[in-house]
Specification:
It contains eight helices and 42 strands. The protein is of the alpha+beta class. Strands 2-9-8-5 form a four-stranded mixed beta sheet. It has a four-stranded mixed beta sheet with strand order 11-18-17-14, with no helix packed on it. It has a four-stranded mixed beta sheet with strand order 22-28-27-24, with no helix packed on it. The protein is elongated. GO terms for molecular function: beta-catenin binding; cadherin binding; calcium ion binding.
Length: 676
């Protein structure tokens, strides 16, 4: 019995438990309101913005916010509103809006509606740099690509990527990348060229190629980079000229010059040109102290140098007229590996008792154009200074220079203008300097620059051109006349050719006589005083003259047959029978071309001097005009005949011709006589 009751009680308890649990579940499952599963709210919203609408399923349902939701949200009817301004940068990024839905009358049914609210981030904050200005140092010896430093900005918008831009007046630095603000060296640095660089760094919270409508914020900072000097240059003697040798810079000095007087000691610091001897550290940022030393050239110990200042002074007089070359060393005191040398040239001069002195205190001159000489009235302006230390007061070491203008130069005492200048009057000074001792004198120089004006009666450039054209025409005419004369001279060579042929003929006569040579004379009297049309004279016995006939007959015989008057004609007849010989001895004057004739004045006299008269042939190609011109050239009062005297030796060779006057009894026109 007890067992049955226990079992009954357990069943009853279980049933009641199930009924109790069943009643609430049925109430929850019955929805009387509904809303969105979640809501996104953009930060920086306005208070009272509607973020959700609640749906009521059954009428008579009321809505209330369950605390603490009522601090964040509020209800306006069925609308869920924001009660605060959300900020994504706050620690809380999401909220729950819990709404209790109750059915009227109270106590019937109710439910809780939970809506999660998430805050969304927007770009609403500017980037910020830690400092407005950064100061950094970098060595000039830093290699290209060395990092100077990182300069990052921060943005409260945690998820925002920042982009950087670097600007500068130089290209010595750059950024590693647009998103990494690491500043690097972009070129070799040189403290002497640039020792400070100002950089401006920009940070932007949107890409550099952002859309126009996207919000963007920018931050700016300044980076002051100081380039520090390194000890990488030797001392530089001053003054010097800087020159670039690749990335290295050198400063070239031409050295120093000075002078002392022979056998005299100079007290104090020795004056030098172009200035006192001193050097500076090539690294101006370090500017280490310099020490000086004479390396060579001071064999006689005449000079000493101050190790700290570089000033040179004399210890004793120089006793030889010479030029002394000192080699001076300048080195850094701390780093003796940095050093430089220079040369000091000291001239030993004779004592000077007088200074150069100009002959005038003022010079005035007129110059008309570049390169022209200055004139003093109608004479060249001479600028001259004398020196009584030299014979005739002429100092060969005096050099002249013009002070006040670089457009003039003085050469050998004459003033020239080297550049075109407008018409004006310049007031300058001229200086005469003795290069041997530096003594000088100064005089006033007034130069009037005036354009060239051609005075009346002078000739200008147009006149010179006309004169040149006229001279050219005259020269051309002279050349034409010379050409005509040369042409005529070539035609007259025929006469000289005849003389040569006679010489050949005379030689052949001598050879035919077996080498026997005697002087004899050929004269043709028949052609003297010619009056007939053929130019041949005919006296009473011109035809029947027995001596002439004999001479003509003998002309056909060899020379050895003409040695005596009583020689028989038998040999001649015999020779004619053996060989026909064309006679060249005749009293007829023929005009045939190529024909030559020789005639005799009297019988051949073996003891007489030979005289052959050659009549110039009148060839067909010779014009009558040329004969007329030859007649006009000869004096009318007397007819001269050209002679040629030769000895036996010259006759055979054709040399030794002697020109002379013809004999008085020769009246032949233009006869050429050759004494053979």
């Amino acid at each position: 019995m007890d067992a049955i009751q226990s079992h009954f009680l357990m069943r009853t308890s279980l049933i009641f438990l199930l009924l109790y649990l069943f009643q609430p579940s049925a109430a929850i499952e019955t929805e009387i309101c509904a809303g969105p599963k979640y809501v996104d709210v953009v930060e920086n919203n306005s208070v009272g913005d509607v973020i959700a609408n609640i749906t009521i399923i059954h009428p008579g349902v009321t809505l209330t916010l369950k605390p603490p939701s009522d601090n964040t949200f509020r209800l306006r009817g069925r609308e869920l509103l924001t009660a605060i301004e959300f900020d994504y940068e706050n620690p809380v990024k999401s909220y729950d809006a819990i709404i209790i839905c109750s059915e009227e009358p109270p106590g019937e049914r109710q439910m809780e509606l939970k809506i999660p609210v998430f805050v969304l981030n927007v770009n609403d904050n500017r980037p910020v740099f830690d400092q407005n200005t950064y100061h950094v140092n970098v060595s000039e010896a830093s290699p290209v690509g060395t990092s100077v430093g990182q300069f990052a900005a921060t943005d409260q918008d945690k998820d925002t990527q920042l982009f950087y831009t670097l600007t500068s007046d130089s290209m010595l630095f750059k950024l590693r990348s647009p998103t990494i603000p690491d500043v690097l060296t972009n070129a070799t640095l040189d403290y002497e060229k640039v020792d400070n660089v100002r950089l401006v760094l920009y940070a932007q919270d949107t890409p550099l190629t952002k859309p126009e409508k996207s919000p963007s914020f920018t931050a700016t900072t300044t980076i002051m980079v100081t380039i520090t000097d390194q000890d990488n240059r030797p001392p530089w003697f001053q003054p010097c000229t800087k020159q670039n040798n690749g990335e290295a810079v050198i400063c070239y000095s031409t050295g120093y010059t000075g002078s002392v007087v022979l056998n005299q000691i100079q007290t104090g610091v020795l004056p030098l040109e172009p200035g006192p001897l001193y050097a500076i550290d090539g690294d101006s940022g370090i500017n280490e102290e310099i020490t000086y030393l004479i390396l060579s050239g001071n064999d006689g110990d005449y000079f000493e140098i101050n190790a700290n200042t570089g000033n040179i002074s004399m210890l004793k007089p120089v006793n030889r007229p010479d030029t002394i070359h000192l080699t001076v060393l300048a080195a850094q005191k701390k780093n003796r590996n940095q050093f430089a040398t220079t040369t000091v040239t000291i001239s030993v001069l004779l004592k000077s008792d007088f200074r150069p002195q100009f002959q005038k205190s003022s010079y005035k001159g007129l110059i008309t154009k570049v390169g022209s000489m200055a004139m003093d009235n109608d004479k060249p302006l001479i600028i001259h200074a004398t020196d009584k230390d030299y014979p005739e007061e002429i100092n060969p070491f005096i050099v002249y220079s013009v002070i006040g203008s670089d457009d003039f130069s003085i050469l050998n005492g004459y003033l020239f203008m080297t550049k075109d200048l407008p018409d004006s009057t310049l007031s300058l000074h001229v200086v005469a300097t003795d290069d041997s001792n530096g003594e000088s004198d100064r005089a006033e120089l007034i130069v009037e620059v005036k354009s060239v004006i051609i005075p009346p009666g002078s000739y200008g450039s147009q006149d010179m051109i006309a004169l040149g054209v006229t001279l050219g025409i005259l020269l051309f005419a002279c050349l034409v006349v010379i050409g005509v004369l040369v042409h005529r001279m070539r035609k007259e060579k025929a006469d000289w050719r005849k003389i040569y042929e006679v010489n050949v003929f005379r030689s052949s006569l001598g050879q035919s006589s077996g080498g026997f040579k005697k002087e004899f004379q050929y004269t043709n009297e028949a052609f003297q005083n010619t009056a007939d049309e053929g130019g041949m004279g005919s006296g009473p016995s011109a035809v029947d003259d027995t001596p002439l006939t004999q001479a003509v007959r003998k002309s056909t015989l060899p020379l050895h047959t003409l040695q005596s008057d009583d020689t028989s004609d038998t040999g001649s007849d015999k020779a004619d029978s053996e060989k026909e010989v064309k006679p060249i001895l005749t009293k007829e004057r023929r005009m045939e071309e190529g024909y030559k004739a020789v005639w005799f004045k009297e019988d051949i006299d073996p003891n007489a001097k030979e005289e052959v008269v050659i009549i110039p042939d009148s060839r067909v190609d010779d014009s009558e005009d040329e004969e007329d011109e030859e007649e006009e050239e000869r004096p009318k009062s007397s007819n001269k005949t050209l002679k040629m005297d030769t000895d036996d030796t010259d006759l055979d060779s054709g040399l030794g011709v002697k020109m002379g006057d013809p004999p008085e009894d020769s009246d032949d026109d233009e006869a050429l006589t050759s004494n053979l």
